[in-house]
Amino acid sequence: MNKKLAAALSGGAVLVLVLSGCSDDEGDKVNDWAKSFCDQAKPQIQKRADAHQIIISTAADSRPAEIQAADSKAFKDIADADRALAKAVESAGVPPVENGEKVQKDVIAELNATAVAYDGLKKQVDALDPTNQQKFAEGLKNVADGLTKIEKMDQNALANLEDGELGQAMAKQPGCQKPTPAVPKTPSGSASPKAGATVAPTTSASPKAKAPASASPKAKASASAES
Fold first, then answer.
1. Which of 49, 59, 110, 151 fits 157 for a cystine, CB–CB 3.0-4.6 Å?
2. pTM for the model
């Protein structure tokens, strides 16, 4: 089931503050804003990528307790990173684009809401009983269902931020580039929603970024039940 989380992360990890309405005269301001945000966002984007990789790197034959610990840490790290990204958006100031105040407010609200949702998933995972493999697998399925909702939240946020000069400016900033996860890749057995698919995390802040591979729900539950 961790593959589904990978999908959710690929959506949330693509933090794209893309807007329309910038004139050529505002180019410097747009680039300055993008640099201010991306410089602050870089460690958080890396943190999200690492958390994403922890989930998809948890071996399918891992013990339930190991899967539980991996997912719990990953959910916490993503929630913390989302809150920090929201603060970075606030700290960077109102984007120099049309309806900048509304865009800033909406992005901050969406990031904080997603963080709260991941906090909820962490609580769900922490409450599972790793000594009962069947119930543990069933509980992971419920976590996967929650991930589907979070993925929709991320997609809705990005739908409002997908075109414009600000997104293009951010895509050029080193701090908003796709990071290399620090966690080695291994077969997944974690809370992603369907077995059999691998997902390469897309945490770049470039506009319209998509996860290069599909993610599917139900992976870890079946793996846990077989342990």
1. 110
2. 0.72
